[in-house]
Each structure stands twice: as C-alpha cells, then as structure tokens.
Inverse folding.
C-alpha cells in the first residue's frame, strides 16, 4: 500500500491542474488542492487500495469546488475588491443566485455548450464534468464502483446527446 507522502508526491501536480481548470485562478486552485489533500489525508486509511487514488482525489476536488460554490451562493450579496494595488480599485458584484454548477459551467464552456450541458440529466452532467476536469473513465469507474465499460458507455451516450442538442440549436433559424 502506498503511503500518504507517496500519494501526495505522485498526485499533487495533476490535482493542481484539475483544480486550476475549475477555478481559473492560481490562488484558488492552490487552496482547493490543499483542502482536497486535507480531506484525502483524513480518510486515507479507509480508502480501498484496489481503487484508483487519482480518481478518488479528482472526485474530492470536484465535490469541494461544488461545495465552495454552493457556500458562496448562501452568503449574503457582498462587494469584493478584485485589485487593491490600484489607486482606483474595481469592484465586482457577487451574485448569490448563481448555482455551483452554473459557476462551473460559466468558468469553462461557451454559451451553447453550457446550455446543452444544463439540459443533460443530473447524473450524466456530473459524469461529463468530472471527465472534463481530468478524471479518466478508469478513475471514474473506480470511484463510482462500476466497470470502465459502463462509464465509457454512459460518457459516449452523454456526448452523443450533447452533440444532438448542439446540432439542433445550430440548425434553428436565427431569431
């Protein structure tokens, strides 16, 4: 069995890249990665060594990101400075009505893809988003306790559904 130090050394850079794709910000990605490793450390002794540790960590990162987005939604609307080094700082209005998935989609995809993803069933959407944020089908299968073949079939079906939605939208006459 791998020690936690080995796990950390082997997985840190991939975990950071995955977090950076979600957050689009180096500081937030670093924080998210650190929190994910804290969570992984807390339950490392209970992790099944037969399952993929990278997939497990990717799922932790994805879930932490969604949790953080949900927490931000529950907070009262506030103003935050985006750059204090300026003489004239700019302010950004934080919208508490944006859901965690909407934030994830807004940080990652174009409007048509975002719309098509939002129309997918919840389970398929989460599977596609996890896969797009660096989780391999093998890692997803290990973390969900099913076969790689089943994950590949579900991903293929979800991708076909997305493609159909995007083609249908592209074929619609302009309004």
């Amino acid at each position: 069995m791998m020690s936690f130090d080995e796990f950390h050394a082997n997985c840190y850079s991939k975990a950071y890249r995955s977090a950076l794709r979600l957050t689009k910000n180096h500081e937030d990605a670093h924080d998210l990665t650190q929190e994910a490793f804290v969570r992984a450390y807390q339950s490392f002794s209970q992790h099944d060594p037969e399952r993929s540790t990278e997939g497990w960590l990717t799922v932790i990162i994805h879930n932490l990101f969604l949790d953080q987005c949900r927490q931000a939604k529950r907070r009262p609307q506030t103003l935050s400075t985006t750059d204090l080094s300026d003489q004239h700082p700019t302010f950004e209005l934080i919208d508490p009505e944006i859901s965690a998935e909407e934030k994830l989609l807004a940080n990652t995809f174009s409007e048509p893809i975002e719309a098509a993803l939002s129309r997918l069933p919840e389970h398929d959407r989460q599977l596609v988003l996890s896969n797009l944020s660096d989780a391999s089908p093998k890692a997803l299968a290990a973390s969900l306790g099913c076969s790689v073949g089943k994950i590949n079939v579900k991903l293929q079906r979800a991708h076909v559904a997305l493609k159909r939605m995007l083609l249908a939208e592209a074929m619609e006459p302009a309004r």
